[in-house]
Amino acid sequence: MKIMQVGVKAERVETEAAEALVLMLCEGDNFSEQSAASIDKAMGGALTDLLKSKEFEGKPGELVLLHAQKTIPAKRVLLVGVGKKASAGLDTIRQAMGYAAKRVRQAKATSFTVSVPAFVPRDSSVIEVAQAMAEGAILGSYQFNLYRSDLAPGKDVAQMTLLAPDKSSLHDLSEGIRRGAASAEAAVFVRDLCNHPSNVMTPTRIAQEAKAIAKETGVTLKILEQKDMEKLGMGALLGVARGSHEPPKFIILEYHGARKKEDRPVVLVGKTVTFDTGGISLKPAENMEHMKADMTGGAEVLAAIRAAARLKLPLNLVSILPVTENMPGGRAMKPGDIVTTLSGKTVEVQNTDAEGRLILSDGLAYAGRYKPAVLIDIATLTGACVVALGQFAIGMFGTDATLKESVRTAGLRAGERVWEMPLWDEYFEQLKSDVADMRNIGGRGGGMITAALFLSKFAGDWPWVHLDIASTDWSERERAYIPKGPTGIGTRLLIQYLIDRTL
Hints:
The chain is of the alpha/beta class. The protein has helices at 34-42, 46-53, 90-106, 126-140, 170-195, 203-213, 226-232, 235-241, 296-311, 356-367, 383-389, 401-414, 447-456, 491-502; strands spanning 5-10, 21-25, 63-67, 76-81, 111-115, 159-164, 219-224, 249-256, 266-270, 272-276, 316-326, 338-340, 346-348, 374-379, 394-398, 418-420, 438-439, 464-468, 474-475, 485-486. The longest helix has 26 residues, at 170-195. The relative contact order is 0.11.
C-alpha cells in the first residue's frame, strides 16, 4: 500500500478547506477548545446540539461525522472522542487517529485535516503528540489486499495535514511527524512482510529485502550462505534448516551513524523463521497458517535499521537475522539429535518445535563479535508467552537494569508495553541434559522463562534484553490502529528505544 503523507501548517481551523476536518475532543469538555468552539459557532451550534442529545459525549473511540452543508469551507467535520482529559495519553491520541483514518476512508475522502489538540498528555511533549498522531493515522489506514482479486481497487487516504495553533509550534510538530512517519512506515513494512505467504517470503526473499535496505545511506550488508555457516560452525541454525529445500541465510546489516566510528553499536537480533511447521515435532494443523509470521522478529530488526538510517540517528546499529524454514523433510533434525552451536556449547534437541531459541543462539553468539553497547533480541518465541500475558504485553527478560528500564519506557511511549519476567538460575535445572551441555526445552512449567534462560547462555556479558512477542505479533480482531492478522508490534518499541538513546 502507498503510505499516507503527513504535513503540517499554521491555519485557522474555521477557514480550512478540507475534505474532512477532524476534531479530537475530550469527554465533558463542552467544546471549550477554541478550534471546536469556532466550528460550532460557524455551524450554528450543530456541535452543541450533539452534546445536548448525547449523540456525542467524547468517549474513547466515539465518532460522529457531520456534513458541513457549506457553513464552513470544510466539506465534513469528524468528531473523535478521546475520553477524559486527565487519563488521556499518547496511545489515546494514537488510537483516536487510527479510528479517524478508517472513518475518513469509509467516507471516500482521500485527504483530511486534523486540528492539533490543545492538551498535551502528562509527561509528554508536542513532538510526541505529533508523532503519535502520524503513527495512528498511518497505521490505522493499513490494508493488505495484494492477493485479493475479488476486491475492486479502493481509494486510499493519501494525505493528512496537522493544523498548528500557531507558527511557533511548527518546528516541533514537523519533527514529531518525521519520527512518526518513519516509525509507522517501519511497522507497515513489517506487516507487509508477515502478510506475504511463505511460498513468497522465503529466506531468499528476506535476503532481497535486506539488499534493498542496504541502499539506504550509511547501511552496509553481509550475507552468510550455508557454506559460510558451516565453516563458522553454526550448528544450531544449520540443524533447524536441514529439513528444508530453501537454503538458509545469515544476514548482517550495519548502520554507521555515530559521530565516532569506533562507538560500540546497539545490536539487534531477530528470529526469522519464514515458516514453522514444528519440524519432526509437528504442530497441530489448526492455525498453522499463522506460522508465516514466525519471522516477525527478523522483519522488525530489518525495519528498525531502515528507520534509523532514514531518521539519520547518531548511533551505530547492527541488525542480525538468522533466516530459515523449519520443515519435516527426510534430512530434518530429529528429537534426540545433538547440535554444536557457534559458541561451542552443545544442545540436545528434545523438541524440534523449539527451533527459535536454536537459531537465536547462533545469532547472539555472532553478535558478541561486535562488543555491543547493548544487545536486544526479539522473537515470536513461545506459546507460553501467550498463556502468561495474553495479547496486550510483550514478555521482557534481561540482565541489565538500566537497559530494561529504557526498553520499558520506550514501550510505554510507543504504546507497545512490556512486562518483565524473572530470569532466575533455578529455572536452568529444567534445561539440564544427560548427554549435552543443555537441552532445548525445559518442560511445561515456566516455558517462557526457560526459553529466555536458554538464550541468556549465549548472550555473553553484554547488557542484554530478550523480547518475546509471541503474545502480540498476531491479532484475531481489528483494533484502532492494529489490523487483524500480523500486527508489527515491537517495531515501534525498538525504534522509540533508538530515538530515546540519541536524545
